[in-house]
Design a protein that fits this description.
heterodimer; A: 87 residues; alpha+beta; B: alpha/beta; Aminopeptidase; 2 domains; 7-stranded mixed β-sheet; 12 helices
Amino acid sequence: MRIAKRAQAGTLQSSDLMVLVEPATLLVVEIESTVKAQFEHLIRERILQVLDANGVTAGRVRVTDRGALDYAIQARVETALQRSAET
Amino acid sequence: MVQQLGPSERDRARAFIEAEGLAYEDGFDDLLGAYEHGVLVGVGARRGSVLKMIAIAPSHQGGAALGQIVTELVRLGTVAGRDAFFVFTRPDHVPSFEALGFALLASQRRAALLELGDGLRRWLAASRPLVREGENGAVVVNCNPFTRGHRHLIEEASRRVEALYVFVVREDRSAFPFAARRRLVEEGTADLRNVHVLDTSHYAVSAITFPAYFLKQTDDVAAIQMELDVRLFGRHVAPFFHVRRRFIGSEPFCATTRAYNETMRRVLPSLGVEPIEVERLGASGEAISASRVRDALRSGEVGRLEALVPPTTLRYLRSPDAAEVRARLAARQERHA
């Protein structure tokens, strides 16, 4: 899958996250989180897994997290990717 | 449920906003309401990248309504091409926005500015190649357009510091478009080796975009906006560039600029930056200013321009590139336009 346009998914509500993806030449993942100090590496790992599973090798992924659990991270990133691929 | 409020619902929104002790301001791209069981429990608006008039009913504060409204405003703003979002609010509301992921940029007694999206850090990181160690200085200029006066200020300042950073105001609401303003500064200072020209990105608090909805009618809106701007510069921008001195032109006739200079003298020293006023350059008995250049263009007195602007700016003003600006000036009258 290729990030063809800017897209967004998720919310800023507690226990959720907002994901913004947009085209870029390199793969960049930026994370803002209320639990950044403790969990940034796990959030990043999860996002990279989803990107990898979808064959995404380039794009900018920005995440504002409010303590979302794994499955929420996965669902929000997947949704953002699907929206970014639609024409 | 959050939905866009149409013209027929504006009065309800206004009453709601005023009941929360805020003022309704026209001029927005989106106005949203959060409804619960058919009752309006919150509203919020967006103008460009600025979120404003966000109000939640007391019975629903601490609940989900704030997050719902802000989420939807950010989503709509993103669709409209924005990727940084700002909130101006009362200082006591800062924690509610921080809980949504906003970061505090500046605050003073009556007002605070927060940002969503980590843009300040990214903007600074992108400017890192220009950072020089040492005793550096800065000027913040609109240069609408670049004059001999700007050149004098920058040249004087550049002699007194190791590196001088010239921040051109990014906000594109001046007679001369940002790209032209910046280019003329670059061309007009190209021979000064220690001068680095960059722009303020979103990190100048502009009088044009500053919303006053959360202030009292008796508050001095302009003074609050200026102080936020100066605090943002002093706290975040100056330390990153090792700026110890900010240079400003002395201001003989514009009250707005004079008030700005006074704010800098009051606020900057406590943030470790020394404000230094540089005497304005005169031409035929009068201080040179960009507004005199615009006046000359407006009235077609092109002969006066040579004394006011350096050759680089003059070349541009005479070129076809500037035709549109000349036409626009003829139609506008405000001082800072």
